[in-house]
Prior knowledge:
Layout: H1 2-40, E1 44-45, E2 51-55, H2 60-69, E3 75-76, E4 85-89, H3 93-106
Antiparallel strand pairs: 1-2, 2-4, 3-4
Helix pairs in contact: 1-3
Amino acid sequence: MYSIAIALHKLRHYDRDHINKTVELNYQSLDMMKQFFDSKGLSYTPPNANFIWVNVARDSRLVNEELLKRGVIIRPGFLWGEDNYIRVSSGTIEQTEKFVDAMKEIL
């Protein structure tokens, strides 16, 4: 019984560490995107979750198609009646860099 309690205690700390690392990565990814959008003068809704809603000042269908060609998946805003917006989820640093690099080519 004692070894089960120790294992559960370790698991609880692992979960807390994992959650903390995941939340920190989310903030890093969103900050990278916000810096890029700011540098391009693009407006966005300040994020409170694991995604950002940004006005790309272009048809979201076309932006989506170009991103897909580059292996990047987003959600185009036309799905919600906002033709110039895209919804971008946070990701790893590498995924976020890939998104930003692709957007540099598209914009």
